[in-house]
Amino acid sequence: MVRLITHNLLACHAKGCTSNNFPLQFQDVSIELRDADFNADFLRGFLPRLEWPALVGAARQLGDTSLPAEQPDMIDDEFLQKLHHVLLEIHVEEGAMVCPNCKHVYPISNGIPNMLLAEHEIG
Amino acid sequence: MPDVQPTTVSVENPQSYEDTHVHAVYDEIAPHFASTRYKPWPIIAAFLASLPTGWIGVDLGTGNGKYLPLPADRPGSVWTIGYDRSINLLKIAKRAGDVDREVVLGDVLDNPWRKGAFDYAISIATIHHLATPARRKLAVQRLLQTISPSHGRGLIYVWAIEQDDLSKRSIPTCPNPKDSRFDIFTLINKGQDVFVPWVLAQQADPKPKGRKGKKTHAISSEESEPAPTAPSSPPKVFERYYHMFAHGELTDLVTEAALETGLVIGQPPEAIVPGRKIQGVQIVQDGWERSNYYVEVHRWEL
C-alpha cells in the first residue's frame, strides 16, 4: 500500500538526484478508503517525525483538505482523528509517484510502490 | 534432509548472480516460503518490544512480513514498513497478521528514503543473500543511513556457519579434504558461500475436480522430505545462495561499514569538543541465536 505515512518517508534516489527530491508527486492515482485502528498514542509520538508541509500537500493532491497548513499547537482528539484518516486510511492503489527534481517515475501497482531503479539509474 | 552445498560466487556480475539465485527463487517459492515462516526469533521480538510508542521503522528484506505486526503486546504502537526485492513476498507481507501493512518494492543496496527518516531498522536473514563482501558492507551502510543519526537503532541477523542441533539445515560437509573452500580455518574466519535447496514438489492437477485447494500444491520444504505422493512432475529444486557468516564476521562487517562512512565506533564520549559535531554508532549487543549471528546498533550524535 502507499498510504501517506509511507509517502512522507520516500525520496527519489535516482543517480545524481540529491536535492529537491522530496516529496514525490502523485500522478494518475486511484485511491481506496479503508478503516484502520485508531491509536492516539502512536500518532502523538509519531507527529514530530512528519514532514508536515509534505503531508498536507500530498493529502490535497489526493483530494483531502482536512489538515491545516501549519501543524497546530493544540493536539486534541479531533485533530488526531483527522491525522489518522489522512495518514492511514487513504490507500493509493494504482498510479505513480514522480520526482519533483529529475521527473523519475515510480509506479504503484496493487498498492505497492516500485522503488527499484534500472542499473544505469543507480547512484 | 536436503544438504547445503558449497558454491563459489561469480564475482564478475554479482547483481545477475543474486537475480538468479536469490530474487527469482523467492518470487517463485513465495507462497510456500511464507507458509513456513511465522515464528519470530526471541532477540528480534525483544528488540521490537523495546521501542518507544510512536516510532517508525523499516524492515529491510521483510520477506513475508512476519515482523511487521510486532510488538505483540502493543500492536500499532510502532509502525514498521516492509521493504523487499520480491514482489510476490510483498503481496503476502502487505496483509501480515491480517491487517493492512505498508510495503515497498526495492533493493537493500539502494536508499529510497529521506535520510535518517527512521527511528529503527531491522534486517533479518537478508544480508547473507548478497554475493560479495563489498555488497554486504554496502547493505549495512544503507541501514545505518536510513536511521536517525541522533537516536536510530538497528538490528541485523544473518545465517551463521555454526549451526545448532535444532536447526533443520546441515553444515556443509567436506567431500574433498583438499578442497580449500572447506578448510576449517577458512570456514571459521571467512564464512562460506553455499547453496541451500528449496524443494517444491509440484502436483500438476489441471482439473481439480472434487479437490480442495489450488492447482499447484507445495508439499515440501527444507525441513521435510517430499511427501510420498504421486506427483505428475518431479519436485522442483531451487538453489538459494547464502553466505554463511563466520564467528565475528558480522561484527567486523558492521564496524568496517560504520568507520568507512565516518562514524565513530563505541559509546559517545563524555567530554564534548565544543563546536565540533561527532556522529557514532555503538554496538550494544552481538551474539549468536538459533544458528544466526546478530548485531544491535544504536546511533548517537553530539
TrEMBL record, chain A:
<comment type="subunit">
    <text>Interacts with TRM9.</text>
</comment>
<dbReference type="InterPro" id="IPR039127">
    <property type="entry name" value="Trm112"/>
</dbReference>
<dbReference type="GO" id="GO:0030488">
    <property type="term" value="P:tRNA methylation"/>
</dbReference>
<dbReference type="GO" id="GO:0070476">
    <property type="term" value="P:rRNA (guanine-N7)-methylation"/>
</dbReference>
<dbReference type="InterPro" id="IPR005651">
    <property type="entry name" value="Trm112-like"/>
</dbReference>
<dbReference type="Pfam" id="PF03966">
    <property type="entry name" value="Trm112p"/>
</dbReference>
<protein>
    <submittedName>
        <fullName>Trm112p-domain-containing protein</fullName>
    </submittedName>
</protein>
<dbReference type="GO" id="GO:0046982">
    <property type="term" value="F:protein heterodimerization activity"/>
</dbReference>
<comment type="similarity">
    <text>Belongs to the TRM112 family.</text>
</comment>
Automatic annotation (TrEMBL), chain B:
<dbReference type="GO" id="GO:0005634">
    <property type="term" value="C:nucleus"/>
</dbReference>
<keyword id="KW-0808">Transferase</keyword>
<dbReference type="InterPro" id="IPR013216">
    <property type="entry name" value="Methyltransf_11"/>
</dbReference>
<dbReference type="GO" id="GO:0002098">
    <property type="term" value="P:tRNA wobble uridine modification"/>
</dbReference>
<dbReference type="Pfam" id="PF08241">
    <property type="entry name" value="Methyltransf_11"/>
</dbReference>
<keyword id="KW-0489">Methyltransferase</keyword>
<dbReference type="InterPro" id="IPR051422">
    <property type="entry name" value="AlkB_tRNA_MeTrf/Diox"/>
</dbReference>
<dbReference type="GO" id="GO:0106335">
    <property type="term" value="F:tRNA (5-carboxymethyluridine(34)-5-O)-methyltransferase activity"/>
</dbReference>
<dbReference type="GO" id="GO:0000049">
    <property type="term" value="F:tRNA binding"/>
</dbReference>
<dbReference type="GO" id="GO:0008757">
    <property type="term" value="F:S-adenosylmethionine-dependent methyltransferase activity"/>
</dbReference>
<feature type="region of interest" description="Disordered">
    <location>
        <begin position="205"/>
        <end position="235"/>
    </location>
</feature>
<dbReference type="GO" id="GO:0005737">
    <property type="term" value="C:cytoplasm"/>
</dbReference>
<dbReference type="GO" id="GO:0030488">
    <property type="term" value="P:tRNA methylation"/>
</dbReference>
<feature type="domain" description="Methyltransferase type 11">
    <location>
        <begin position="58"/>
        <end position="144"/>
    </location>
</feature>
<dbReference type="InterPro" id="IPR029063">
    <property type="entry name" value="SAM-dependent_MTases_sf"/>
</dbReference>
<protein>
    <submittedName>
        <fullName>S-adenosyl-L-methionine-dependent methyltransferase</fullName>
    </submittedName>
</protein>
